[in-house]
Amino acid sequence: MEHYRTHVSKARKAAALAQSMPTADSAADAQVEWETKQEAALINRTCDELGVQIHEINPDGHCLFSAIADQLALLNILPSSQANYATVRAAAADYMLRHPDDFVPFIPSISGEDGVGATADSGIMTARQFERYCLLIRDTGAWGGEPEILALSRVYGVPILVIQGGNPPIVVHDPSDTLVDPKDRHLKAARISFHRRKYGLGEVSAVKSIFLSSLNAAQHYNSLRPKHTLATVTDKIQSIFS
To answer: Which helix (H) or strand (E) holds 210?
Structure first.
């Protein structure tokens, strides 16, 4: 009986210890939540240096194009009536279709290097595949990225600065290929933020996380608007005494 009580006691202690220890999933969730907060802190710090603040964009497949449209309206490059993701999507797709050699080498082939009948060039899109890709960018909610940002900087003739939590903190897409100071507050440029962890497990429900993951929505873009004049003055006063 004593042996039995000892066994039960040990079993209870083991069960209690197991309950107190985080599971693999909870540990992973905690790591994602920590990374999300770290990324947000780094982006906010760069925003403070630039005198801008995040303007939240709807987290859907159009977020990149909506963020850039918002910036183009602020810069008076597009009238408000045209500053929407549909206009910007069409501009990016049309430019890419007219300049395939500038983009095809940087967009993976649909079949990939290990596809059936792979050749030395199988990692490069065919002309037909590239056309389909551009039509998806223009006509659907397909996610955009570096190629589309580069295309839009050239279409509208304005640098696009992407603030992120990684290194470098500001990625510059300049249509003139000249060296610009990305921290120049007076530089005429479109400024957006890129969030790799915007919708980490620590910020949304499990059901929504599954849905967003299916859309690759862990990654997100926002527009960066100038801070209120009073906030800018406050920043300057603080910098004098720092």
So the answer is: helix 206-214
Distances in whole angstroms, Cα of residue 41 to Cα of each of 32, 166, 224: 14, 11, 15
User: In whole angstroms, what is the distance from residue 64 CA to residue 220 CA?
Assistant: 7
The token duo for 229 is 């004049």
| pTM of this structure | 0.74
Neighbour order of strands in the sheet with 160-164 = 52-55, 220-226, 190-195, 160-164, 170-173
Residue type, 109: S
Gap between the Cα atoms of 24 and 22, Å rounded:
7
- Give me the pLDDT at residue 4, please: 33
Give φ, ψ of 225 to 5 degrees: -105, 155
Res 26: pLDDT:
81
The domains of the chain, with CATH numbers, are: 24-241 (3.90.70.80)
Q: What is the pLDDT of residues 147-201, one digit of tens each?
A: 999 999 999 999 999 999 999 999 999 998 788 899 999 999 999 999 997 654 3
Task: Judge whether 165 and 47 are in contact, CB under 8 Å.
Answer: no
Average pLDDT over residues 116-125: 57
Q: What's the CA gap between 221 and 147, in Å, rounded?
A: 15
Q: Cα(212)–Cα(195) distance, rounded to whole angstroms?
A: 14
